[in-house]
Amino acid sequence: MNGEPSSAEPIKDVNAMDVESAKVSRASAVPGSENGATGGGETVPAANAGGSSSAGDECYICLAKMQLRGGTPIFNPGCGHQLHMMCFADAFAKGIKQCGVCKKDLPDIAINADYSGPPRRAGSPNLPPAIAHAPPHHQPLTTPRQNHGHAPYMVPQHRIPNVVQNVPASTGNNHHPRHATQFTPHNPEHDDALPEATQDTAMVVDRADPQTLLRLSLEAEHVSIPGDQDASTTIACTIQAKPAPSIEHHSSRPPCDLVAVLDRSGSMAGAKLAAVKETLRFMVEEMGENDRLSLVAFCTSTEELLPLVRVTQANKQRLEDGITRLQIGGGTNIALGLRLGVDIISKRRQTNTVKAIFLMTDGQDTERQDWREAVATAAELNCPIYCFGFGRDHDSTLLSDISGRTSGSFNYAETIDTFRPAMGGALGALSSQCVQNLSLLFISATDVTITKVTSGGQACQDVIEQDGHAVSVKYADIIYDERKVVLLEAKLGRTFGGVSQPVLKIQEASFRPSDAPRESTERTHLTALPPTLEIDRTVNDGGSAARTRRRPVVREIMRVRAADAIKAAAQCAERSAYAEAKELLQPVKTDLENLVLGANENTADLCLTPNDEATLTADRVYYAPLIGDITTAINRMSSYSSYETGGGRHWSNEASTTISAQRSTNPNTTASSRHYQSITSRMYSARSSERRAPGGNTGGDATDMPPGSLSLPKPF
Known about the structure:
This protein is α+β, with helices and mostly antiparallel strands and 716 residues long. It is 27% helix and 22% strand. It is built from 15 helices and 27 strands. Residues 59-103 form the RING-type domain.
């Protein structure tokens, strides 16, 4: 593509073509026309009259209906799969040289100097004013090319490119292939059987006392509140899991069933596919003989490369053969891959206690099929879905939504070298589950009403019942070393001064230990519950005690505020309101910095306790990563380039969920990641980062890429 006209065919000025010529070009370009010929790569102009293409004729990039008249220019690359000229030019400029449907080579073209490039979103700060205001000769696309629901892209009709094409001869059927909507169901008879849980093959050698797995505590935000006034306070319920036992031996942890759902679309070729294969080999090395691994590959269709196979020494070659079979295919049908992965989990005849699905992709879901039913089934089975988004072209909003509906997490792998530790961290979290199906029931006093509950992500459910006097909170799982804080906002009625007012108690706390035997329905009810929380109601003398707040609770309030600010700012960035995004983030950063410096303390707004050196140090350690993440958010949402093309959207999706859910399996994305990553997850991340392929290359795969090409971080 050199920008010069081809000697074989002169440049055609599509703007000069009349409507009748457009009809002829359109007829010859559409597959199945009267003469049966493949289109010659003609560009069909957008005329002023009405008219549209046949039903279902959509651009396979932006999915908007293509119109013969009154729409945007249409381009046929010669294979019969038409698309908008602007979409074609954008893809070609990015180095995409094959049709997105049939993968045939696209023709060489030359675009004249008057072509201004792909369309941009109206209102973007780098748009010329004439385009931003969209006069009548700028026609919006029927559907935005990205971020459905946002401002449409504007196409300047007076700058339609002139095109020269060298169209390959037609071969075979040029009709759209039937997009796969079904898959071959999983046959559970192909799964490896699990060993009987005898004394010699027990899943866990030494089970911990279930009563020691979790510790609960209650603490109110305010030290005291005057009794002669209605008041509000925040109550923090802290859930602390016990430290992880040694997991150097596989028998010291519960075994798992893991299904890896892997994107093998064309964009995964080369270094990405090599990194996936090498990480799968790391997983095989780390898993034990009672663990089972299944591999599912998806592109436009999906394929079960391996059923649930026990990771034994005898099966190592079988597993390696399955990894080797992972080869590049066509488009990206995420829903179909998920459906097969969930089908494998749901049809198990024998079940390991711990199970999960790892979903890995680097692109947009080109097939747009419904994935919600499959994810709902996974949530019902208490099966977390850990999502991994490669590079900057994936749909992080979709992936974070999928993981957020289960107890998994979304992991943004901006470079090849950040993918392996993210995957290793997820495996570490899966290997260190402490309890499953944790259920908490809070009961408030008759003169206390719970108005709001903030319990975090990972499919946690919280329900306020009985007019605010009962609250149910459920977590799908808690991992070893993990700390969760539930915040309950309470409204307190008036009472006498000089008394202690009962506020809240934990009525019940129960869970299923992750190390329980496979077929057991055992459920543990904690007996060591904290006492009923009481708050001193004082005589109102205007003293500082009436406004003194406890530092540990204020930390959690600021954590939630930071997560909410990042999420709200990202919503502003989605509509290109970057200045508004900064206005939401900057006050949070200032307040966090003042808390570290103590600038606002002993004022009418803030008086904190305790003030010993250990607590002050804990404040600084806690707030530092939050300040770092808010600062990064301001930078990532400062412009179109930093948010749209610089990975800002993906970063903000992971950051807000990590801080809100208080869990991370990815050590390299946010400043808060390591703060919320468990010790075991961190250890697995380090192991996966240190892994070397045969021959000393970092993560290399000689069959997929040149030796040593993964030795340095590279953006996708």
